[in-house]
Sequence to fold (410 residues):
Amino acid sequence: MPITEKFSPSLADWPDADEIRRVTAEGTLVVLPDRVSVVSGEIVASFREDAQALRVRGHEQWLRVELLAPKDARLGVYREHAAEWILPIVIFLAGQGASIITNLIANEIQRRVDRLRESGQDQVPTLRYREAIFEGERAEVREIEGSAEDVIFWLRDRAALPSPSEDDES
Amino acid sequence: MSRRLRRSTVKGGESLHVVGRAAYYDPPPHPKLARRQAARLDLKAHLALQAKAGDPEPIARDAIEHHVDAFLLDRRGNADSFALAHRLGREVEQRFGCNMKFDEGGRYWSVECGVLALHKRLGLSPGGPTLGKCSICEAGDFECDHIPGEVYNGKHCFRIIIEWDVREVSFVPFPKDPRCYRVFPAHSVEEVERVRGRALRPGERPTCTHCRDCYGHEGALADDVDQSTWRTSAGDLDNE
Fold:
């Protein structure tokens, strides 16, 4: 299955763009919610299930990972029993830290694939990796979709690319 | 605990009514555990059926559902659960009959038996925000460092959903929770009467005879086990 790439508009529920930029600039891996809605009278910012694994594994590698939600929102999980496996929307700064982050994400995907296979599941669902992109005032979501193995390959390939600063040095 | 769905959809200009399980709050058991539970219940059901004492029917029906879960959770590893469910289903049908149920609105007949889910190529997939807690430490979402799916001190970590605001339900070929293949068509009184060629008599209930004639009691076909061969379409919703 080939990798497909598409761009879709940013979600209306995202926190303020300046806030996202500020946190990202500190080298933090920022995870954005898929939905912000009212559940039983409470504002809930819902993230994809894998956000917890990224958060914990990131901390284990001394990475700053922040689930960015509107102030006073309770954190929840956007649950979808769909065929597709959709990762949470992430955003991080290009540069040396980016390769650590993309490897972290690729490792987490591999871990999940291994677990699915161990439990006897033959059919590994199609995976969608999503990252937020800001260009000036314009924000959008870049979506990479394909088999889990192909997305891992794409991420690792990208992690191996020299960062812009490394290019400058050479 | 599961969440039941009742909905109508349109297929080729005709409306199609279905009932089914849209979601389960508890995580699916490990396929090997599901198989062990099914085997235990199967034995209990057969002993109850032979003893002809007490009420073996609910035990046998429960065993059928566990065989179905075991197969849906691991089609290759638990392939024989397909035949075991059908064989027990045939015994239950012969002994007690499998009456269809009339829905609350009094318009549709349906039979919500897991055996039919063994043949389904489409399942249900609900979506929506959820609030939950960790099965290991009971902390709220993102408040602890336990990862669902991992094992901590021999304990399997999973997320317990305490609130689920279901926003949409889709039909998908590979639902994340395989138990959600439990989607059953509901038949209108007119449909039932058309198939029978006569009006239903007062008090008469249509019955399901699937297990009597199905190939399933001999074993699953390669296609039932190997999901990579599936080419699904909306027509697969009523492939009983």
Summary: The CA atoms of residues 64 and 127 of chain A lie 25 Å apart. Chain A is about 35% helix and 35% strand. The two ends of chain A are 36 Å apart (CA to CA).
